[in-house]
Amino acid sequence: MEKTLLIVKPDGIQKRIIGEIISRFEKRNLRISAIRMLRVDTELAHRLYDIHKGKPFFDELVDFITSGDVVAMVIEGDNVISLVRKMIGATDPMQAEPGTIRGDYALEIGRNTVHASDSQERAAYEIGLFFKEVPKV
Ligand code: IDP
Ligand code: MG
Predict the structure, then answer these.
(1) Helices (H), 28-65
(2) Tens of pLDDT along 79-128?
(3) Which residues line ligand 1 (CB under 6 A)?
(4) Which terminus of the chain is more solvent-facing, meaning fewer CB atoms within 10 Å of its CB: N or C?
(5) How far is the CA of 83 from the centre of ligand 2 (A)?
(6) Cα-to-centroid distance, 61 and ligand 1 (Å)
């Protein structure tokens, strides 16, 4: 059983499609095992996007992910990392197939609605960033 981190980015929250995105994974019989809404601060954004430091779009990436609330969730299932990547579609929404989340809801590469981990190593790292503390109830 694998786990992956899925983030609904600020444009997804603004478009009021959190429920539709969660529904897609649930209808595929995947399990949402943790979920939270939060505002990502600059430090967390830098950790999430550490591999993109130095790229021309890095500042834009940090500005956007910190611009409004996001919903982060852990999704579990067999081969869930590659399955969720298929379900979100290509990074550039103009290249994303219809039927994928980006192919159905997004138009701009910088506002492509969702983030998903791309490997087991990144999934473990990214889940640790968003779900490292025991929640207070
Ligand atoms: P991914 O989200 O499909 O894994 P990555 O290459 O990891 O794509 O890039 C992270 C995010 O950075 C993308 O989701 C996208 O929002 C943004 N991004 C990637 N490439 C570009 C670009 O060339 N211009 C502007 N933004 C980009
Ligand atoms: Mg990526």
Answers:
(1) 42-48, 58-65
(2) 999 999 999 999 999 999 999 999 999 999 999 999 999 999 999 999 99
(3) 52, 57, 61, 91, 109-110, 112, 115, 118
(4) C
(5) 14
(6) 8
